[in-house]
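Sequence only, no structure available. Ideas?
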Amino acid sequence: MATFKGEKIPTCYASCSIGHNEKHTLPEKLKAIAGAGFDAIELSMPDILAYGQQISQSQSEIDPNDFATIRTVGQKIKELCKENGLKILILQPFANFEGWPKGSRERKDAWERARGWMSIMEATGTDMMQIGSSDAEGISSNFDELASDLAELADVFAEKGFRIAYENWCWATHAPTWKSVWEIVKIADRPNLGLCLDTFQSAGGEWGSPVTKTGLIEDMDKDELERRWKASCEELSQTVPPEKIFFLQISDAYKMEPPLENKPDKSGLRPRGRWSHDYRPLPYDGGYLPIEDFTRAVLKTGFRGWFSIEVFDGRGPDKYGDNMQPYAQQAFNSLQRLLDEVAAKD
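Reply:
I predicted one. Tokens follow.
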């Protein structure tokens, strides 16, 4: 556990992190995460699929919709976590659930996936799933309709005692900010539906940019940008109840030099999505976003729940090599430093 002004803060680590390295198997990651002092992990579907392939006799890839096989792998991961003294905080990341037209093939697929993921939650022993705000085309922009979909799913989850953490993805189609997902959560009004907030998703969406030379949003002058960012953080601290924040994810971002092209890539992923997937280092490890501002705002709500390190550092293999243990320890230390810096400047 980390500490903030003497208070104990539960700490989590997202088990997918620093680029692609075949030596970073799930058992090795869990051992390193536990050794660094973390209390839990975020269990990602990519890690489940990779571990399932590793332990299968055929070494063949697992179909992401083969939920029976994935449940079996999930049970094995549950045991691995238990051996390492780690809790599985959440299953993530579930994408493109809300907003599909009634009766559409996409809506049917979203519900089939959600039910499949619920069965995996049961197998792994976690009670929470993360849903990112949809980046799909063709979905509704009406917040009442988005909220209705999430409320309907939350009611199904409630039957199992499960919760949903809704996160703003800063490249989302209609809900890219903390305020937009909070509006949707308020409209849905379900006790088991809350927020996953994220230092990258908010600072990288409202302040930073991967497509400009300055690394800043440039449709306003810098003073106005800073004023709006500070005002957003202050509004969060004054309006979001701490019990509706289910956990806070921590990461920074590299300033892109050269900037990314200001258009979707071949897969259709928008620039901020590419930035998120590959260029998110640990705090104090080469990034530049005002993540202390956002962390302070979340703490000012009264939130003292789970803090999770979630980094996607495509430069990681070159920076850190094969040994996960020093990196995991650096991750824990960077989180503690972040809490210390925020406390000192509060």
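The mean pLDDT is 95.
Hope that gets you unstuck.
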